[in-house]
C-alpha cells in the first residue's frame, strides 16, 4: 500500500509541476506579448478613416477621402523624424486635414460633416505589406465621416507605411530600416514574424 501511495504521490507531484510550468509559461508569454505591443505603440502613429455607414456609396467615399488625406499627410510629414514630431505636426494641422477631407466629400456630392482627431484606439492584428502589427491600443489620427458607423480603413502614418506600394504589397527597405531604428530587436522581429512574440528565458548562472 505504501509503495502504491508513493508512486501516486510522485505522479501527482509531476503532474502539478507540469501544470504549474504551463501556467507560468503562458502567463510570461502573455505579459511579454503585451510588453512588445506597448513598446511598438510608443513609437508609431496609426491612421484611421471611419466611413459614415456600410453602404456601397459611403464605403467608396471613405476610400476617396483616404486617398486625399494620405496624399496630404505624405507631404505634411515628410520631414518628421519621430512620433513626437509627427504628433505635433498633426495637432497643428487637424483643421487643414478636416478641410481636405471636407473638400473631397463635397466634390463627391455629399454633405457629411467630418472630424479629425488624435486619439487612442484599439486596432486588431493588421498587416501592411510584409509587416504585421500586433493587436492593441495605439495612438491614431482618426478621420470620422458623418456618423462614423461604417467599416473603417487604417494604416501607419508614422513611420510612413501608409505610402507602402499597395500593388506589390511590400514595405520598402528604407521604411523597414526606419522601423528597426525605432524599435527594440524583439519588437522589430515580431513585426516581421507576423506579429508573433517569442518567449525568452534568462537562466541565472550557478554560484
What report would you give on this structure?
The protein is an alpha+beta fold and 207 residues long. It has a domain at 43-123 and 137-163. The chain is built from 6 helices and 6 strands; from the N terminus they run αβαααβββββαα. The protein has helices at 2-41, 56-76, 83-92, 94-107, 173-182, 185-192, and strands at residues 45-50, 114-123, 126-128, 131-133, 136-145, 152-158. A 4-stranded mixed beta sheet has the order 2-5-1-6. Strands 3-4 form a two-stranded antiparallel ribbon. A hairpin with a 2-residue loop joins strand 3 and strand 4 (131-133). Helix 1 (2-41) crosses helix 6 and helix 2 (56-76) packs across helix 4 (94-107). The longest helix is centred in the N-terminal third of the chain and has 40 residues, at 2-41. Residues 20-31 and 198-207 have low confidence and may be disordered.
Quick structural summary:
With 207 residues, the chain is of the alpha+beta class.
- Report strand order across the widest sheet: 2-5-1-6
Query: How many individual helices?
Result: 6
Coarse morphology: globular
- N-end to C-end Cα span: 41 Å
Find the count of extended strands (DSSP E, 2+ residues). Answer: 6
Query: Mind summarizing the main beta sheet?
Result: 4 strands, mixed
Percent range of helical residues: 40-55%
| Range of strand content | 15-25%
Mean pLDDT: 82
Elements, N to C (H/E): HEHHHEEEEEHH
Rg, rounded, reads 23 Å
Low-confidence stretches: 20-31, 198-207
Structural class from helices and strands? alpha+beta
Amino acid at each position: 500500500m505504501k509503495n502504491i501511495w508513493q508512486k501516486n504521490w510522485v505522479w501527482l507531484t509531476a503532474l502539478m509541476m507540469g501544470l504549474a510550468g504551463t501556467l507560468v509559461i503562458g502567463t510570461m508569454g502573455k505579459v511579454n506579448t503585451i510588453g512588445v505591443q506597448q513598446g511598438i505603440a510608443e513609437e508609431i502613429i496609426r491612421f484611421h478613416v471611419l466611413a459614415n455607414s456600410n453602404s456601397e456609396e459611403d464605403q467608396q467615399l471613405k476610400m476617396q477621402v483616404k486617398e486625399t488625406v494620405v496624399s496630404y499627410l505624405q507631404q505634411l510629414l515628410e520631414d518628421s523624424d519621430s512620433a513626437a514630431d509627427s504628433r505635433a505636426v498633426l495637432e497643428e494641422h487637424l483643421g487643414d486635414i478636416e478641410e481636405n477631407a471636407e473638400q473631397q466629400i463635397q466634390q463627391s456630392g455629399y454633405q457629411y460633416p467630418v472630424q479629425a482627431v488624435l486619439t487612442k484606439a484599439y486596432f486588431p492584428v493588421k498587416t501592411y505589406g510584409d509587416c504585421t502589427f500586433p493587436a492593441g491600443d495605439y495612438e491614431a489620427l482618426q478621420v470620422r465621416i458623418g456618423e462614423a458607423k461604417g467599416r473603417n480603413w487604417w494604416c501607419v502614418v508614422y513611420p510612413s507605411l501608409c505610402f507602402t506600394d499597395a500593388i506589390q504589397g511590400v514595405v520598402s527597405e528604407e521604411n523597414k530600416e526606419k522601423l528597426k531604428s525605432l524599435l527594440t530587436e524583439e519588437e522589430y522581429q515580431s513585426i516581421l514574424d507576423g506579429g508573433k512574440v517569442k518567449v525568452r528565458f534568462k537562466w541565472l548562472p550557478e554560484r
